[in-house]
Amino acid sequence: MSGPRPVRAPRGTELSALGWQQEAALRMLQNNLDPEVAEHPDKLVVYGGTGKAARDWRSFDAMVRTLRTLKQDETMLVQSGRPVGVMQTHEWAPRVLIANSNLVGDWANWEEFRRLEALGLTMYGQMTAGSWIYIGTQGILQGTYETFAAVAAKKFGGTLAGTITLTAGLGGMGGAQPLAVTMNDGVAICIDVDPRAIERRIEHKYLDVRADSLEHALQLAVEARDARRPLSIGLLGNAADLLPRMLAEGAPIDIVTDQTSAHDPLAYLPSGVDFDDMAAYAAKDPAGFTTRARESMATHVEAMVGFMDAGAEVFDYGNSIRGEAQLAGYDRAFAFPGFVPAYIRPLFCEGKGPFRWAALSGEASDIHKTDKAILDLFPENESLARWIKMAGERVHFQGLPARICWLGYGERDRAGERFNDMVASGELQAPLAIGRDHLDCGSVASPYRETEAMLDGSDAIADWPLLNAMVNVASGASWVSLHHGGGVGMGRSIHAGQVSVADGTKLAGEKVRRVLTNDPGMGVVRHVDAGYESADAVAAERGVRVPMREG
Ligand code: NAD
């Protein structure tokens, strides 16, 4: 049994475990390894480089076997993708507790991690890979949509209609940018050096058209902008050449960002190098390539700063291009902010974050019914309504049908309770697994990303994700996870996750209400503690108790 094989979660209402809480964990583990969902299922790798769902096939088999026989008052313990114990607990306790990739501070680097991994002692769990709540590329699309919606809310009256966004990188994640901009009714010019990246995005309907030249791209963009018509335009070329040219020519750009793979200098094409020669050059002379890539990134970032000086909204989208430009000696590289402090933090202050759920029935109709329930519950939230409607039309499900949307404190619990009622009444064909990304308001410490530039300087304080995991255990989540190194790598982040199963029982309803109140509540209290006034206002309005505010 213990070797690579295709894995797919069962559908329907027949249980192979002793209850829906255990069945949900089993199906979501299997779903993470579904070939439609995982990047390299044969290696148990789900996404994000080497983010895995189980340490090895023997461990996977042992988890499946154990989940099938796990009782309602038992808890399976998972240590970096391997089941290491079953303990008697109680029915409010999680059925699974997961700790992935954690290392003691002084040992928390890739070198030591790789050494231990080679000994078979650990695995890299990323964020939702090792915690069994990854739902495919919908997550990236929605996160990018939400970021551009926040840009629109902050600077452009709530819509990108009538604006032009300039960006580069149409790869695995960056390819979500054109659709995220047009979903916000804006116009996007997206540069990439790889013609296949442009073609692929057009094929997948994430990108609308390809321009023949810079002039053509600008003409198409201006026409669409003036008609307030959404349009995304692919433009072939090197961002380090095209951005300075566009700046010099006074191109009418409102928003600038970038998602080339700048975090890895060997994956950024230096100016003056042909795309077809890139791989051979990087392999032959990595040091020389790196120097030239960094110099080009400095030119690229200098143009971004130029657009900022000219009045455009400019931000770093989490690819370290500012850091690389600084290494090349450009001293204004950090003149523009990262996307979390610029747009996402105000949402975090309201306890907002990437709420998601999967239909264990396997029926798309269950998700369409929950989409409708979300629209009914939050009719005043226009950006949410636009996302839900467009996701219904444009997102292809991968594996078990699922949905993601950002909801805040006081919203997630209402959605969760409604979902549980829909399971209870038989409106949905089977229970739902309700979880979230670890990239959330109160569940992550990551000084280069989610906790960059906290108001009180508490960027590296990692007590918060630990408290978050403990609160979710104490509140009745179905499985809870505590990881290290997701997103930005070893030594750079600590983060927690939870999944709660709405199985239609009264008990599940009570658990879901507590978890989905307390989990985003951690985001509110974390930001109150850091001194954010908007979090303070949310706590006061919505009744989140913070002892240091009382008395
Ligand atoms: P990818 O490697 O799949 O794609 C990168 C693209 O950039 C490729 O299509 C490549 O051809 C293009 N490119 C390289 N050099 C270029 C140049 N000089 N000019 C124009 N195009 C160039 O990477 P990805 O998965 O799309 O991720 C992109 C980056 O964004 C990564 O650095 C990633 O870490 C970061 N990222 C951050 C977040 C976040 O923080 N929320 C989310 C997604 C991605």
From TrEMBL:
The residues the record assigns to binding NAD(+) are: 48-49, 126, 172-174, 192, 238-239, 259-263, 268-269, 317, 487
Q: Indicate whether Cell cycle appears among the record's keywords.
A: no
Paste the cofactor note. Binds 1 NAD(+) per subunit.
Q: Which GO terms describe its biological process?
A: L-histidine catabolic process to glutamate and formamide; L-histidine catabolic process to glutamate and formate
Looking at the record, the residues that make up the Urocanase Rossmann-like domain are: 136-343
Question: What is one GO cellular-component annotation here?
Answer: cytoplasm
Q: Which reaction does it catalyse?
A: 4-imidazolone-5-propanoate = trans-urocanate + H2O
Q: Which residues form the signal peptide?
A: none
User: What positions does the domain Urocanase C-terminal occupy?
Assistant: 346-540
| Broadest EC class assigned to this enzyme | lyase
Under Pfam families, the record lists: Urocanase, Urocanase_C, Urocanase_N
- Looking at the record, the residues that make up the Urocanase N-terminal domain are 7-133
Write out the pathway annotation from the protein's UniProt entry.
Amino-acid degradation; L-histidine degradation into L-glutamate; N-formimidoyl-L-glutamate from L-histidine: step 2/3
Q: What is its main location?
A: cytoplasm
Name any cofactors this protein relies on. NAD(+)
Q: What does this protein do?
A: Catalyzes the conversion of urocanate to 4-imidazolone-5-propionate.
According to its UniProt record, which protein family does this protein belong to? Answer: Belongs to the urocanase family.
What's the name of the protein? Answer: Urocanate hydratase
Q: What is the lineage of its organism?
A: Bacteria, Bacillati, Actinomycetota, Actinomycetes, Kitasatosporales
* Underlying gene: hutU
